[in-house]
Amino acid sequence: MRLLVTGASGLLGLNLSLVAARQGDEVTGLVHSRSLQGVPFEVRQVNLLETDEALAAIEASRPEAIIHCAAIASINAAEQQPELTRQLNAEIPGRLAGAAKGWGVPFVHISSDAVYNGQTGNFQETDPTDPLSVYARSKLAGEQAVRTANPEAIIARTVFYGWSLSGQRSLAEFFFNKLTAGEPMKGFTDLVFCPLYVEDLAQVLLEMLEKQLTGVYNVVAPGHLSKYDFGVRIARLFGLSSDLIEPVQTGEEYLGAPRSLNLSLNTEKLQTALGHGLPGVDQGLERLHDRWVEGYPQTLQGYRA
Q1: Model confidence over 209-240: pLDDT tens digits?
Q2: What is the distance between the alpha carbons of residues 230 and 238, in angstroms, rounded to a whole number?
Q3: 109 has which bridge partners?
Q4: Structurally, how many domains does the chain consist of?
Q5: Which pLDDT does position 256 carry in this prediction?
Q6: Domain range enclosing 250
């Protein structure tokens, strides 16, 4: 399959491109400000804000499927740059999805668990959305733009972690870096989520394309835990001191933007569509550790141009 991935230097985009290339797909990765070197796929530097030029570059690569990962992914950065966030997270996904429909190419849009308000938990895809932050509202608007332009698109509501190009892009890396340096940090006991290891997420997204799914899916790990517990599990796996992690609640800290507290999501729809279960949190954390043992973080950082 000729696969085009936007945001190919980001946490998901890079890992996804590498997973797809390993399984034999012909990958073209679009990057903007951060280029890549030595990766086993084609890299093109494109500014998605110059959308007509970007669409021409995408069409020229003749993709057989598109996975749109590029976004403003930081909640606090979105608060500081609301207009840029609106353009990248809300407008451009609709333009790309519409173009893909015109080309007859399957399209996957990466959304966020943050579109839910976090008041009840166990959210299903049919539950009302109620985003709380600039970031979350932009991701929901992106979903709506994609659905309007391309009703056959896959919309993946997800949250993920793993090793990245910079070594500083995911919550797992935050805990690992702080713990390794012996630095104290805080872990939120009232922020609950269902994080999926990024290479597992990549494989699930590719399987969703293979099975020609359409519509909205919660693409997260079955089961949930607090961000404090997530940090503690990382400490134990890597043989580091969990005593460095101070348990706190969100009300005790200034977070810069409102957060949804209970983002436990129901994955029955996706598991039924795939015909099998999804990798759990502990399984993903073990893969994170195994990849570290293999030197995968250093491999990724070697791709920095």
Answers
A1: 999 999 999 999 999 999 999 999 999 999 99
A2: 13
A3: 68, 155
A4: 1
A5: 76
A6: 2-301
